[in-house]
Amino acid sequence: MEVFRVAGNNSKRCVILFGWTGGSLRHVAKHSALWSNLGVSSIATTVSLQETFLPRDDTGLRDKARTLLDTATLELGAEEVVAHCFSNGGCLLFVTLLEELEERRLQNNSDKKAVVVPSIAGTIYDSCPIPSVHPAHGPWLLMFATPFPWKEKMMILGDLLPHAIQSTLLHPFQGNPIAWFGGLRDPVVNSPVDRPELLLYSRGDWLSRASQVEKFASLRASQGARVTKHEFPPDSPHVQHYRMRPDEYTKAVTDW
User: Fold this and answer.
1) Whether pLDDT at 192 is above 90
2) Nearest to 25 by CA among 82, 74, 86, 70
């Protein structure tokens, strides 16, 4: 995790950059320049393959969500958070953070020592989301869509493959163990009330299809979110829109 504080910024708002699965923090953090130029402090983080596809209670995903909230409120003094989500791994962490927010709201209702619970001021979805995520996707994503050296891939595969096989075999009886990803589409978990949402995508993205993103946009609009879509040309690949077209990307976010 890395914090990018804007000097002299008295805003009570910050941005959390929820990086994509297996992404480099250095690459995710490049998007902080966009927000710094707009005068908004930001926090960048990433999500590992294990955090994406293994059971949440066996990884540090919940702790990561808590740390992000503590950093936003205690270090940056934020009362509002803009969620800037990249790919489906970023969305998984965002849903986990939403659940942590709800826990803190409930704690405030029952505890005299209230903690700061920031509101979500808006959400940006970059190259996401797809309808569902399943542990069986993990080994495939690892082998064909990550730049890790083969030795590292084999080590990660040893973590992912047993759970992927077990989850696939038990799916008819126990369902998808990452079904909680559906919270992204649940208006109770991911409240759309008076919230602007921006979806950035392209038809050249073979991981998060444009048709899937557009269906999500329609759903959120029907739930009451103020949805804006920006489609990049087909030569703009998955989570590379800012790198490929920084001016167009910046304008889309600024106008939003």
Assistant:
1) no
2) 86
